[in-house]
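Quick one: structure tokens for this chain, please?
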Amino acid sequence: MPAERVLVSQTGSEATSIPKITVFDYSQSEFNQWSTTSVDVCVPPPKGVTVRWINVDGIRNHEVVEHICQCFGLHPLTIEDITTPDQQPKVEILPEYALIIIKMIHHTGPDSRMVSEQVSIVFGKDYVLSFQEIQGDVFDPIRRSITEGSGRVRRGKADYLAYGLVDMIVDFYFSILTEIGEKIEDAQEQLIANPSTEILRDVYDIKRKVIELRRSTWPVREIVLALERDGVQMFEKTTLPYLRDLYDHVIQITDHIEIYREWLASMLDIYLSSITNRLNEVIKFLTVLSTIALPPTVIGSWYGMNFVNQMPELNWPFFYPALMAVMFSMMIVLFIIFKRRHWI
């Protein structure tokens, strides 16, 4: 039976100041897992352990992170990249290890809000170090694969685990894209049915998420290419096909993002066209209304003038009803003409 040590949970402000460290030691036949706040166990794996995976949630405590990195002989510049948030996604391949910095986008909190955080992955011959800004990630399928012994993770080495972590991050990009696509479809239907400023705000909010996702995913293409091209010594031959498959996934994601950007741009055009058409309809209605009311206005203003000598027809007893009939007849005739021309 695999040995598991007691988990140490952290909440509140303590979790932000003291990193949560989770350690997996595994081989094809067995595994050990435990969580701790002590850095004493964060050393290279002993003999008999194929891979040691150390995951650190929280990088604010630089002393803890630096101690772990120093135990594995990481370069000071690598440590600086890990402990500095908002790094650009990149990959650095050194003789003894490789560093991957990537943006992980996932849902967190009771409201499942979308968050983006920096994840630093360092892997060598028999170890993988992953550093996250906050607790919560998309690596649960990897953990289940290790604990249950399913999949290829337990049969692979550290390079396959590093690939698996990046693959999980990229796969969750697809989930985010699916969610964004559904929101775009809903917004488009509402935009066509009833364009409003509320829908416009929703469109701009979706556009902001797409831009954030593009900023996070676009450099991943270069990361995977660099790993496949320059990191041959870091990967087993059996892992290289998975890198090529990962690159194909990243290309699909970037293509979808570009499609969504064009889709959102067209939606903004639809909104502007809808508002313009609505304004044109209002102007057309007012123009037609003014045109229909023009004959009575002209006639009324004509007979409203004051002359010294009265107009002779004013003495005719049936002049008033005749004038009303003429004015209404002209209005009806104009209405029929506009109706036949489909102006109203």
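The beta strands are 20-26, 31-36, 51-57, 90-93, 98-108, 113-123, 127-132.
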